[in-house]
Description:
Elements: E1 3-4, E2 7-8, H1 9-32, H2 39-49, H3 53-66, H4 72-89, E3 90-93, E4 96-99, H5 108-128, H6 132-151, H7 155-175, H8 182-195, H9 198-207, H10 214-227, H11 232-245, H12 250-263, H13 268-280, H14 284-296, H15 302-317
Antiparallel strand pairs: 1-2, 3-4
Helix pairs in contact: 2-3, 2-4, 3-4, 4-5, 4-6, 4-15, 5-6, 6-7, 7-8, 8-10, 8-11, 10-11, 11-12, 12-13, 13-14, 13-15, 14-15
Amino acid sequence: MIFVRGKSLLTISLCIAxxxxxxxxxxxxxxxxxxxxxxxxxxxxxxxxxxQSGAARARFVKLEQxxxxxxxxxxxxxxxxxxxxxxxxxxxxxxxxxxxxxxxxSGDDAYLALAAKAIDLSEAxxxxxxTAEMELYAGMGYVMRVRLLGLLGDxxxxxxxxxxxxxxxxxxxxxxxDMTDAYTGLGLYNYYVDTLSAMARVLRFFMGIPGGNKQDGxxxxxxxxxxxxxxxxxxxxxxxxxxxxxxxxxxxxEDVLTPLVKEYPTNPTFALLMGxxxxxxxxxxxxxxxxxxxxxQTPSDxxxxxxxxxxxxxxxxxxxAAQH
Length: 324
């Protein structure tokens, strides 16, 4: 056996092999989790999805104070605001519970300002040094613009923001194919653009908006909901909602949504959607149970709580009387 300064060559070889193995494991872990999220972000997101948007916002504001030049905290605070906006705007149309349209309210400007702040910081960072993370954050900022502008009926503004979001997210994936959160925005783009009405398709052509593919969108949303760090919950919620609303595939919507209501049983928005899906499947007793569960929750946003209670009453009343 060969010795080198008191150590056998075999021992050194084993140490090197162990170090290399450790490096490979670390590399695989880095690939699986390309974002190094601070605890305030992950803790805040969990609070948000349990229905406690106020407590979540406090975490995100604290993170803004600690990292004022990072776009992430502003995106997270906007996310907290979005779920309040969405909940307050929900109503029942064509038998579906969703946020279909709303007039501008006092909280909209603050939400858009947070999205703009995140976009500005991300794009400034990209000019200095382009990274997948900053491309992701820029894309998410534009996606946030799309959501509210679409809700307000600003189709042109939403379309242009969607195209810019797509450009950033495609660049993100080009830089790092493992940045799975980018597939949430890309999946939504592909799904919605391929679901447009005939008139909207004509407008898309004249506006030069790139086309989409619904099946690609579904595949991308599934990738994001199973592997995303920031947007997994959002991807799962929107996929279930879209399968219900546009594909009338209530069975698949139920399968996609079930893990979400199990993990976050205190989120009334998730419970309302599940009740709606169960009702469409004819599972009326189960639907009534989800509506009752939604009404019993106490989200931190008072306006959301009021809206949920009314929606739960109305949706329950619409079920066949013998079943609730």
